[in-house]
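Sat 14:20. Reprocessing the chain from the morning session after the first attempt stalled halfway. Input below, unchanged.
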Amino acid sequence: MADRPYPGVLLDLLHAAGDRVVFEEPGRATTGARLLALTGRISGGLAGAGVRPGDGLALAVGVTAEALATVLAAHTVGARVTGIRPGLPERHLAHVLDQGDIAVVADAGRAASLPAVPRLLTVESLRAGPDEEPVPAARPDDIARVIHTSGSTGLPKGALQTYAALAAGWAPHPDRWPLALRRLAPRLGRHLVFGTLASQVMFEYGTMALAAGGTLIAAAPDLPGAIVRHRATSTVITVAKLRALVRAARADRAGPQTLRALMVSGSPLDPGLLAEAIDVLGPVIFHGYGQTETGMITMAAPEEMADPRVRASVGRPPDENTVEIRDSGGRPVPPGEIGEVFVRTPGQACGYLGDPAETAAVFADGWVRTRDLGRLDPDGYLHLAGRTRDVIIVNANVQYAVPIERVLAAHPSVAEVCVAGEPSPVTGEAVHAYVVPAAADLDRDLLRGLVRAELGADAVPARITVLDRIPLTPAGKPDREALRR
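Finished this time. Tokens:
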């Protein structure tokens, strides 16, 4: 029934699955009918606990059938749902929970790790109610999700997504899938999930797998071991985990044999690592770009990445999305020129929780200001050049961090690299490169020469600091602020 409120489309998927197994975890397989019934009991438990459309719920759940049913049940009653990611720093967790009227729903695996909260509901108590059909009660203009950013530049911001926007999303609707996702769908037969199913990325790719007829496989994120143990065909992966997976697969001289799709999430993937991953793992990488505020913006499928120019991009936007590159005055720039990326997507957020100033700065006239820098090539592929905050002004000339990183990362002596600006009494700012070497004989002068030849003298790192590892934020992104400190 297409006119039912969200998550009616997901409940219909479970009903259609019937006796087909849709969720596997150690020692247990759950069918679509069983998961639907579990969702009905938990949504009844939430309603019995007084949760009404528009009420706030924070979900501290893992990767079990009950966790997935809890996410579906929270949306069934029309709540404002906030997912709590495992491993949040205490300061970030306190900020996420500071929403006044919010109740926390936790499963047995997460409850003990939470601070004291005014109202705690357990999944175990909610599922104890009678069987009843889950009936969506959401109102389109209510907030469906508060999706928090990584907090890499301070406290996480809570992006607000309405039920209407959530219903307009692509994940559970095969008729809305762009070409890259239609190529992805057949590879989602056994899709590995970990962390929390209340995660935006984990939930959306998980529901896409269900819509494609696949099964979600709960596992610890110990790649490639989990892929091998569970015969997984696909999963979501950060750049840091991809790098580790490539190293492990190269040491074994073979990648996981069942793997057919890796969706890289969290931060841009440099072309050197992408080329190495394709060489070691085969044509399994789906390389894309998205934000908390927008969902997926662009994607490139393995079939496209035989072209090195595509590998250097983050893919092309589907027809449903609009990408525009603008200068500092907000005017569109000619194709090929670098500017700030502005986007429109069907499921984008509408603002930030409790932050009208930031909402006005980012959301305007139906567009989302990404604060990322990029350019569109003649074929419509998007090439990122870093964050607006990652601009380094050297001798009054603008330098971008990402192109410098790509030149350095392409050399075989460099395993990882992150570039940041630092004050300079001579040039105003200077480029500082932090490098994890792949070999003992790191030649700094050679690396500087490569940057000079490719990008010019002002882009050359004034300093190259050797590290054992690049520090990461809790979301798995390079932590430039930690490097500057």
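The CA atoms of residues 245 and 436 lie 17 Å apart.
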